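Researcher: Structure for this, please.
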Amino acid sequence: MKKKIFLISFLAALMLASCSKEDDTPGTVWNPGTGKDSSNVNPSPNPDDPVPAADDKMSIFLCFGQSNMEGNAPIEDQDRIGIPDNFKNMIVTQGDADHYGSSRYSWRKADPPLARWSAGDTPGLTPADYFGRKVAANLPTGERLGIVMVAIGGAPIDAFEKETCEAYCNKSDHEPWYKAYLAEYDNNPYKTLITAAKEAQKSGVIRGILFHQGESNNGQANWPERVKKVYDNIIADLGLDPQKCPLLVGEMLREEEGGICHGHNAQIAKIPDLIPNSYVISSEGCKGNGKDGFHFCAEGYRIIGERYASQMLRLMGITPKGEGYVGYHVEGRFLKDMNGNTVNLHGFGQTYSPWFNEQGSKWNGDDVEGCLKYNQGLIKDIMDSGWKMTWMRLHMDPHWTIDNSKGGYSGEAVAHLYFSESRFKKYLDEVFVPMTKYCIDNYKMAVVMRPPGVCGDSPLSYGDAYQKYLLKVWEIVSSHPYIQNNPYVMFELANEPVSFNGGDQKYSQYFQDVVDLIRTNCDNVVWVPGLAWQQNYRPFASYPIKGKNVGYAVHCYPGWYGSPAQVSAEEFNTPLDGNEEKFRAGFAESVGCVANFAPIIITEMDWSPHEYNDNHHVAWGSSTTTAFGAPFKKIADEWGNVSWMIFTSPHLLAKYKNHASLDERSQKFLEDPEACPTAAYNWYIEYAGGRVSHGKVTGIEVSAPNAVMQGAVVNVAVKLKYEDGYKITATEGLSFEIADNAVLSDKGNGRLSADAIGETTVKVFYGDFSEEIKISVVGLFDLAVFNPSIYETGTFDLEAKTFTTGKYGFAGWKYDSPVDLSAYKYLVVEMEDCEALSSYEFSFRLFDANNYWGGCATYQFKGSSTVRIELAKLAKDDGTKMDASHIYIAGFWSVGDVKAVVKDIRLEN
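Model: Predicted structure, token format:
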């Protein structure tokens, strides 16, 4: 490795030595006190003169690294002209001070080169040249930009590590040329960078850091962690806020351009996982110099420099002149960030009304200051509690939009009928935009804006009053100068419930019109709602919304899509027999139809054990992390394009780490890993690349059904046990060792396929822990998997083979996917003499659709103990032919409360 580093350093130096010498004519020096350039004989400041106050209109950027940041390509004539007057460069080394006839840490106009002149050769063009040009040209009138450059050809990351930098620089085995480079920076480049930056802070505000280094650490696995430590030290030593000081890291020369260190780009790609406010700058298409395999040519430096600038400008809320929108955007079925990385966002929601802010106990009326102070305080407390939130759903509540002079307002469903355009515009400026800006400026948090109110209780129709209302709202929002093409702002076009008259094509056109209007103003991502309670997206599968940056906004609660719930909600048709595979299939059917071609964002979801949850005390959905939350996460992760949030009230999220002031039930809700806050808190940390802080995993608890039906999928639930007593369901990292792979096979992600009848042991692994379980795979009509409560609640005694149904109930077998009986001639059902056979009606029924109310084939026992069903002649009760290769439900119907005893059920030829 030492030989490799030396070779890189030697070649870097060789290329630097080949760079053309520059004119030694002294440049001009900028006086930060006046903002003017002047010919400079010796402008060294008088130590007794007052230090100029920092100017908020001067943006400072620190640039450091090795030869590609220092500059290697010869400076060409085009690089000496067109330099904006508001683009400045700090004189950092004594050699430069002598050359310019100036003093160290003073400013000059940013004529190239921007790095040192001395040490026997002169650096060339650098990415900072064209970074500075582009940023300076896009700044508002009267604003300025200053570059502080500390870069050294051949320098490994060691040269910038605070704790060991000086010892590294004073090693005796450095080459003479390299010693000279280090000496220019007082044999402590890190200290020089900090000293220069502190001087720069007297003139302006440090708004970002540019970094290009890695050739001398090519491929080293610990390099990203070392970069993070350097960044953290800079932030701490300069008193900067990491949320307001992004790190931009440039890629190495690509393989297709002859780059020797192209493999190091894999290490560079890890930086954003370690430093949240960091971004990778692509070197794609940046040509090399064709000589050494390390350095860009002049044109390559110009391109990557402008890419640094485009990224930084967007982080500053400025869309670069001549460039289209490059914020969060949609590519195919994925949401992408400003760097083109695929992202899935994880967050929470806020609603700005006295009622939703703790039932009017915090502020009232049109108290803008009270609203902002309370809600911004909640966000600060949420983030200070360690939540890794990357987006917020912002409801522009009708509290700020309704015309108070009209009487009879009865809630969100009629908000559009009481809409005041003037109030909306006023409070868009005073409430909604300031809250959006707070999230972005302080936490780089994406914001999804939702319109005031809900779609209403009556069916929508094309061209109705509500569509006109949405068009007006989004016309105002999408043309707002702060929101328009803001990289972090997205729009959720409407909110549940959604019923519609007019057919799927008209429903799609209803929202197509809204999207088309928005596109006349901006390219922000839009999220389109589905039918019902934002559950049904099949209309868009046939008639997708056209245009760019379109995704779909989905809601998801326990009991929906076949997921498990503790309490049935009749309004949502949510039975209590949900499981993970039904959830997976239901989600695929209702949402997957659009997730196949566009990204999804879950804008409402939560869950909690029902003991905390009556009357929606803390959550809307009643279920557990094991039954609902963990399966949801697995399904979302499997799709790979699902962003999501929890709908828990932000005042509870803000108290996650300090909830002693809350009532006892709320405290238990926040502490219980079976409720959504604790699970989401840990998962968000893991999504962000962190680790859960509950100590070490000390063991696992494994649960799975003892018997499953052939053809089914077994979902193995594994709880991780931590040394502090905490337990949570694992959603990844599981593996299996199956004794008989003919019986069960591994489908991945904690799922086993029941392939053949038999019994086998399964060893479940998570890290260093394992536990063995035994699973039997049984036939399609085995009583071990008999369900007495497919409809109404029944009872079943496996040993006695005896069951009762509920009143007019159904018992038997319900299959997650259709079973094929077409290879058999008969299905034979035999009963023991029992009370049921003397009942006036007792029957065996088969269904060829996954719908208990969808019609079936009925076979009456009529006092006989046996029915023999000829499968080729299956027909529904109305005479419709049935498909024996597609059976979803089979079993017994009875009037209820009568005892039935099964003797045998078998397939025959």
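Researcher: Any notable elements?
Model: The chain has a mean pLDDT of 88. The first helix runs from residue 2 to 17.
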